[in-house]
Amino acid sequence: MFIDTHCHLNMIAPKQPLEPLKEHHFSVIEEAIEESRIADVTTIINVGTDLIESEASVLIAQRYQDVFATVGVHPTDCNQLPKSTHDTIVALKKLVSDKEYNKIVAIGEIGLDFYHKPYEEQKQKDYCRAQIELALANDLPVVIHVREAADAMLAVLEEYVSQGLRGVLHCFQQQQYVADQACNWGLLVGLDGPINYPKNAWLREIFAKIPLEHIVLETDAPFLPPQQLRGKPNRPAYIPLIAQELALLKNIDVAVVEKQTTANAIKLFGLEI
Asked: What's the CATH number where 9 sits?
């Protein structure tokens, strides 16, 4: 079986951004989940990006046995939030306080993004640190977004490594030294559809060197479909295409990729499946 460790089923649904999830949205979500089952993607981790989408993530996880949730605030969503992290963390704490019932397996998507402008670097760092501390307090890993902020992100993460930080660098598209440091700290890296984009030969070289024990598979659906499906919405069912690309890079059987990346995901997120 395969695990999609990062997708946004709530964004596959035909709803507006920040619109709460409603009953009529579930037909499209259920269709995507059923497609995944047919493709042997038997577990999906649905990732929150703000408070509304985190609540949606929990609702989806509660409804479907093979879906789990993360809750958190994406760095680009910090712009709309107060300077103080207090109210946001209180809201996240409320969700996490019953993490078993809510099927919450991580805090995320958190991190730093200096690509989308304007941005407030200090605010992003404050929200990132507050959410890492929430994760540590609740024995949860973190799902980390990094874009044009690798050195700053490593500096923040280093503050927490000695405290037992666990997590994954989502949709990894960083340089080799970032991968090396992440692996040295025991973190994992997420492999997504862009691995087989023609322009990404440099990224393929890096993933060829990253130990399989440090890799999990992701789609980031409905974003970033594999090359052969560019122009179409991504789906968790496409995870085997990403696994096949990794098997080619490492010159191993795709069954080995399937077994190891699944084991990695189960361990990182504490899944009972």
From this structure: 3.20.20.140
